[in-house]
Amino acid sequence: MKYFTPILFFALIGCKSVQQVNKQNVDNAITKNALKLLEDKRFHSVSIAVLKDGESTIKHFGELTIGKGNKPNDSTLYELASVTKTFTGYVAAKAVLDKKINLEDDIRIYLNEPYPNLEFKGEPIKIKHLITHTSGFPNFPIKSENKEAFFEGLKLIKIETKPGEVYYYSNTAPEVTAYILEKVYQKPFEELVTEFVLKPNKMSQTKFTLNENDRTRLVKGYNDKNELMPNFNRTLWGGISGLHATTPDLVKYMKLQLDQSNLIVKESHKKLYKEGLDFWEGYHWYIIEDNNRLMYRHHGGIYGMQNWFVIYPKQNIGISILTNTSFNETGEILEKVVDGLYNEINAN
Predict the structure, then answer these.
(1) Residue 285's closest CA among 89, 80, 104, 50?
(2) How far apart are CA 52 and CA 24, in angstroms?
(3) 239 CB neighbour count, 10 Å cutoff
(4) Of the candidates 7, 94, 103, 225, which lies 20 to 30 Å from 198 by C-alpha distance?
(5) What sign for the dihedral angle of Cα 278, 174, 269, 100?
(6) Are strands 273-274 and 119-120 parallel, antiparallel or unpaired?
(7) Is the model's pTM score more than 0.85?
(8) Per-residue DSSP letters for 219-257?
């Protein structure tokens, strides 16, 4: 046995060395891309989290308040905006597996009134249309000041295309989904997200409702004119937006989404609607598959901050990038940063 001990020792040292080199490469890639982003003076801070082969790296740069030098940290709370929709998709996928809903269901069987307007030439809007942005619903709810007004607004909608045929991004449809999920589980949507996603994955710093201490950690963002912007005020269920999270919690969410043994994840990643040669819609995931790259992603944009959340199952990589600024080109710029990060990380 003693003859093998030195070999085993050096093998372990070599393995550790490779892990350290890989982590250093990720660290360098994050720093390089973050500093390049901050050369654009419209950006003030950025937080980046990368998960590669189970190893996480989180780094923060810049300042949250212009002129204060207060760099974000692992306790900083960001608004996830539309990345919240992926949580809605997860709960919907669980409901399908629990046989609470069926993707082919006419959504009106779950509503309290007939809504004869929610069809096109006899073709009903189905659950699958809600979660793939193919329902024909308008982008923003006609009325959103409260839940009662929301349903009144539904009566004013005119569906002008056959459901399931045309992609049109809708912030109305996910709120209907959240309401339906509440109804079939007989629990508030916020509670469903907590019970099915947050608690099982120990995401204690991801939440809809903030207490006073949480609000001191919540990012206040800017537009491209350096004007301070308000935070989002949720008046509906939260199917479209409303979650807040720290970067370490988003790493936990990456681990969940990369767990292909999880049947809910597997269901939520199904390709439900094809939009192009290599582009599909899943349960509120945008799925891109070309050559050897398979990507599940979602963008989130709100008044004063934006983010991208992306996972690459084949490479076992997850990337989250968050910034405290929001203007028209922000999403496109952040997308390029994510692509650059992925290319550098995957090359090593």
Answers:
(1) 89
(2) 12
(3) 30
(4) 103
(5) negative
(6) unpaired
(7) yes
(8) ---B-TT--B-PPP---S-SSSS--EE-HHHHHHHHHHH
pLDDT (tens digit per residue) in 148-169:
999 999 999 999 999 999 999 9
Residues 6+ apart with CB under 8 A from 117: 155, 156, 157, 158, 159
Cross-strand partners of 319:
50, 310
Which pair of tokens denotes residue 127?
Answer: 């659950």
Residues constituting the chain: 348
User: Residue 132: what pLDDT?
Assistant: 98
pLDDT at 2: 41
Q: How far apart are CA 216 and CA 183, in angstroms?
A: 34
What distances in angstroms separate CA 57 from CA 39, 60, 89, 118, one per listed residue?
A: 22, 10, 27, 46
Whether 19 has a pLDDT exceeding 90, the answer reads no
315: its two tokens: 């490479």
What's the one-letter identity of residue 82? Answer: S
Residue 4: its pLDDT value, please? 41
* DSSP sequence for 16-81: HHHHHHHHHHHHHHHHHHHHHHTTSTT--EEEEEEEETTEEEEEEEE-SSTTT-----TT-BEE-G
Tokens of 241: 């937006």
Question: Residue 305: in which H helix or E strand, if any?
Answer: strand 305-312
How far is Cα 183 from Cα 189, in angstroms, rounded to an integer?
9
Amino acid identity, position 314: K
The Cα 65–Cα 82 span in angstroms is: 24
CB neighbour class for 278 (10 Å; exposed up to 12, middle 13-18, buried from 19): middle
Cα(205)–Cα(290) distance, integer angstroms: 35
